[in-house]
Amino acid sequence: MAILRILVVDDDPEMRQILTQFLQQNGTIALAAAGEADIRKHMASGRIDLILLDVMLGDESGIEICAKLRREDDVPIIMVSALSTDQQRMAGYAVGADDYIAKPFNTELLLARIKAVMSRTRRTASLAHRRRLTRFEFAGWTYDGRTDEVTSPQGYQVTLSQREIGLLQALLANPHIPLTREEIAAAMDATGEEGDASGRAIDVLVGRLRTKIEANPKQPKLIKTQRGVGYVFATDVNKVDA
User: Fold this and answer.
1) Is it true that the peptide bond before 153 is cis, omega within 30 degrees of 0?
2) In CATH terms, is domain 133-240 a member of 1.50.10.10?
3) DSSP secondary structure letter of residue 4
4) Is the pTM of this model over 0.90?
């Protein structure tokens, strides 16, 4: 099972620290953000599975940020606020929030709400948005999401199976992030590429993809083995919209 990557958005440094530490102690990867600019950086640099978004962020509005994110992405969002009137809750739901929890809250209740939202949405964060991106460029290679065409730095096309494309999509969505075999399998499932998700099956699939995109598959430069974890796509990825 993939480890949840949760983004905690709050303009109060102490609250950010308390929440991120609590979430980390409960088996998640918790990242901190103070406002929209930080959110954008995290979303661009790696997978985000859920956002805990405070309503009042100094000069920024969590409601407005939620509305912007929802126009671009399907990442689950739980609004967090000291304002708990029905009107405030409805404002959050109206812009696409998946849930709304009022401060102060019981941390065990927060965990239960996170679990419930993830169970309902059944999606790996940010992959839906990334699939709408039409082209990925990496180490001279190009992957066109509209046609599933992969083009080498020399300009020739490389034919990949659907499972290999699913693996490549999962890696392209998470550059420089070590992924377990379970996380890779979960990401591939989110792209619609179901199949044998065992560790051995992922290893074999990685080996096949390496033979097609690595200059030397025995000494890979792109898909590297991360000892004790799994694999990491060790190159920058440029995402290009239509």
Assistant:
1) no
2) no
3) P
4) no
